[in-house]
Each structure stands twice: as C-alpha cells, then as structure tokens.
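Hi Q.,

Before the meeting this afternoon, I wanted you to have the manganese (II) ion prediction in hand. No need to reply - just skim if you have a minute. The sequence and ligand are here:
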Amino acid sequence: MLENLKILDTTLRDGEQTPGVLITSDEKLKIALKLDELGVNVIEAGSAITSKDEQKSIKTITENNLNAEICSFARPMKIDIDTAIDCDVDSIHLVIPSSDLHIEYKLRKTRQEVEQMAVSATEYAKSHGLIVELSTEDATRTSTDDLKHLYTQCIDAGCDRICACDTIGLLTPERSYEFYKELSTLNVPLSVHCHNDFGLAVANTIQALRAGATQAHTTINGIGERAGNASCEELIMAIESLYNIQTGIKTELFYETSQLVERITGLNLQANKAIVGANAFAHESGIHSDGVLKKTETYEPIKPEKVGHRRRFVLGKHVGKHVISEKIKETNTEVTPEELNRIFERVKALSDMGKTVTDVDLQAITDDILHINPEDSLVLQEYTTVSGNKVIPTASVRVNINNTERIEAGVGVGPVDAAIEAIRKSIKDTADITLEEYHVDAITGGTDALIDVLVKLKYEDKQITARSTQPDIIMASVEAYLKGVNKILSDKKRS
Ligand code: MN
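Predicted structure with the ligand bound:
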C-alpha cells in the first residue's frame, strides 16, 4: 500500500507553529524551494488569514511556479478561504474540529452546525476552483461513525481529499492501522496527520499508509506543535530502506534541507536525531569504528551519502587505534606502530578526562611525539573589537601570514562575528575556508567563567575541528578559529 505515497509537507505551517519559531517571508521561500527540489507533492505554505506578512509569504511562493501544489490552511470560514484565494494557492487544507470535546468546549456549537459549516466551506472553495483537502481536527477522539457522516457530506459537496488528524498524538501503531483502515473505504484519497507526543508519529503514519491512507503529512526535522509532527526524513527513509519501496523523493537532499530548516527556525537538532542528527553516522567506539572502516554495513543501516550526510569518527574514550591511524594518514604523516601506540595512549588519556579530542589536539600530540616543531602559518599580532548598543560591531586585526603582514577589518552581528570576519578576510587569498559550526560552553558559572569554544571548519571536502578555552569569549573564539586555520594550512603544506 505504500507504493503511491504522496507527501504533504507542513514545515511552513504546523512546523512554524512550533513555540518560539517565526519564519520570515524570504526564509519561507528558501524552504519552499528546497522542499520542491526534494520532490514533495504538496507544500502547506502557511495559513493565509494569520497576517498580511503571512499572505505576502504565501504569495511569494505561489509566484514561483513550483512543481508542488501550494496549499494554505483555512478554517471553514469565507474570510479564510477568500484570503487564501487572494494568495493564488492551488488548494486549501480546510480544518474542522470533529471531536465532542473540541465542538463543545472550543467551538461551543452543535455537531450539526459544524457539519453545515464544513459543507458550506467546501462548496464555497470548490466554486472558486480550489482543490480542497478536508481535515478533521482531533479525529482520533471522534467516533468513526461521526467522522464518516461528516466526510460523506463533504465528499458530496466536492472535497478532493480527506484527512484525519491525530492532533495530540494518541494513536498506537495498532490503533492507527484499524482507524485509517475504517476510513479508507470512503471513495477519496485519505491523508494521515500524526503528532509525536509519544514518539510514535512516524510509526503511526506508516501503519496508516499500510491500512490505505495515500498521503502523509510531514515536517522536516519533525518540527511542529509540542513534540512535533511525523518527520519527513525518517518516514521516507524507513519506507525506502526498511520496506524497500522507492518514493521518488530526492533523499540525498535531506541533510541540507534539515540544516536549512534548523538554521532558519533556530531549533537545534538533538545530536542523536535519526537520519539527520550530528551523530546519525558518527562512530566513537573502537569496535564500531574499526568495523565501519572495514565494511560500513557492520554498524550503519544506510550509507550517509544516501541522505547527503557524512560519516564521522569521533575521538573519545572508546576510540580505537585504527581510527587514529586513519586520521593521521589523512594528513599525509607517516608514523611507526610504536609511535602510533604512544599517540593512542595520549589521546586516551585526554579523552578519559572527558575532553573531546579535536583534530587540532590530535595534530599537536602527533607533532609532539614525532618531534615536529610546527610553525604556524597564520599568527595573530593584535586585534581590536568595538561593540555597543549604538555602533556596528567592528573588528580590526593585524596578522602575519607566511611571514607577510596583513591588516584587515570586518563587521558582524557582534564582536565575535566581526573578529572572525576580519581574520577570514585576511586569509581569503590563501585558502577558502568556511566556518561550518561554532559552539560555546561556559565551563564554570558566573560571568568570569572559562569559555570553551569549539569550531568546525570546512576546507575543500575536509572538515576539521579545533577548540580553545579562555576566560575571554572573543579571544577563545579567535584562537579556536586560528588553530583550525593553521591545521588546514599545515595539511596543505604537507600534501
Ligand atoms: Mn497538526
């Protein structure tokens, strides 16, 4: 039953309803373009009635003539439908509360009144040429008789698809199968909309699809109200990898889509998030890493490239010698087995103290053991930053690059950003390095805390990590960045 699966992605509507999230019009368009490239069938772009800004966002998306059907959420009210029409959407997601609880306490109406509203709204939208997906809110706490009664009238009124929402995530996989099976007898395409309050949204969605639903509502990274919605990347990868069914979705775009949504919404992904989390393809344990280096299938259910992600070996307390050896080889450095043993012991000692060993740490240990006296290519002579509530944060730096002095200045959102920008400008002719990630931790409490900064830099197809711990956040950031850059420049020299 999973073969002709369609995806309605609601990252821009249910996802935006995540507490604390607001997506601007430009950002919505960026996400919509990416979702279209990914190949979802329907993009629920927002709820047109919400505000003038929301209308502008939806209209910007509809003006782009995407392949996907563009949809707006609407209540069964003329004004909601009219506003959606003004945004030139292809379809509306018409949402009607269906449980006694919602009808009595939220709407304070009778079931007959609600049914009448649904039918009139459907007729009105259809008479204006819209595709109508009629959705029942809190459907999983509504009797299937009541649901069928409502759906049948709306189908007669011309609605194109029906959707039953597990609004507060109460289904189990078994109940989901029974529930959607019962509704799949109605003669229109059926959608499933699951929330993740018990972590079952994807499992419940799969059961609904097996039972006869043909369209799944999803969001990227599973964002959405409370615990979120069924995650698009998890659902698709489960169907493709565990049920062996091709969905037609460009799965290799999942990681970058996830990153885009993470960046724009500011909702940081948990490291162990399935498919797209930082640790989804990371290995630390010696046994695991060793296995993966010999054959990836030993400890990876799918290849990271399949979702556009990367495999990563983390040097922690379970690290194995094999991984360290591979890491050192990457930098074109030769070590004897005895030297490798000594490097391994030092890495273990560091990680036993609870430190994540960065690439720069490993390099420093290796250089030390091989008695290499590395000369930093980039040396900071001085830096100055200016920041305040009435100035644009600005930084100037004087650096030596391969013994040539350079002076640069940069501006940014704050002094750290400005200082990094100034340094980046000073090396831009030497190497094209991008800052991929930046983490700050205050190790102790108080404003005089030690600040630990970890950066990930990207150079060509390599990613390297570096850290610095200092009481001054700007200096810690600058030093971590410099260490990373010097590691890249020294690798460049060696190769
Ligand atoms: Mn929802």
